[in-house]
Task: structure prediction
Amino acid sequence: MADGGVSRGTQTVLKKVTQQTRTVQLHGAFLLPTNFVALNMAIVKILARHNPSYKSLIQYILDEAKINKAEVYTHNLRSDTINDYVHEFIENQSFRLQSRTDQIYFFHELVSLSAKENNELITKEMIDDLVHEYIRLRGITGVMIGAVHRDKEHVHIHFCTSGLHFRTGKSFGMSKAKLHELKVSFQEYHKRKYPELTESLPEHGKGERYQSHAKWHAKQREQIIDTVNRCFAQATSQQEFLALLRDQGLHHYERNGKPTGIEYEGLKFRFSRLLPDKQFENLPVERNEEDRVLSEIQAVREWQKERDNREHDSGDRER
Result:
């Protein structure tokens, strides 16, 4: 067994990514509060995705403008290109035992260190270890790809995590209790192993110090509205709009399987309050990627069924 109880067969490996990805750039600075939650807050966030847009998120995670190629991490994946990573996620999805209209295809997960940390203390070896521990706590039967982004003031790590355990078809979701347990365990490991990172230690479950919701809105709401509207003005589809927001550090949340608003540092803003007259809902929905992925999932399932039938027939003949 490897350190932390991870077997050699599923141990996290470093990958080099050579495929070019498209970078979305917006003109002008975007200002958000440095941290409206207590400034020594490290964030662990898990966002469910009900649309099989694996490629869009993996391209964002592996954007060469944001990452050092040596700081890419995979778990239960064999590939080294974006298209092949996507195919492995699709292949794992094909094992799903029960399909639902609101099923979760994958999770967008983030681990962020405080912008107040001295970045010289945050070494590659430290990040490697923290990523390995996060994956161990999240579950070694998951399918994950992640990368460190250093393009903003704070170091943060993005993961694309399959909605299913590796090749079992069972859900890899987390209850609120399990998520809280993950955060607390990750914090305890962080405190014990890297006490020098004093600015990234939240007190999970002990009542973080929030500025008032109204006060934060009074200071920052206009800036958020301005950024959302600038992204909207450039977008030709819902998918492009969400990608533009994501490039600005604003990640959407979903309700009933549909994008509903953006989440930033624990606060949620509905599109209905940021954009007038259902403008988001009126944007066209690009289904090319979704339709292609769903077709590929079905093709993989049919191939697996044919293979199983051949093996069954072969076994009958041998008997």
Summary: Residues 1-41 have pLDDT under 50 and may be disordered. The chain is about 40% helix and 15% strand. The beta strands are 13-14, 43-49, 72-75, 106-112, 144-149, 156-162, 251-255, 258-264, 267-270. The two ends are 39 Å apart (CA to CA).
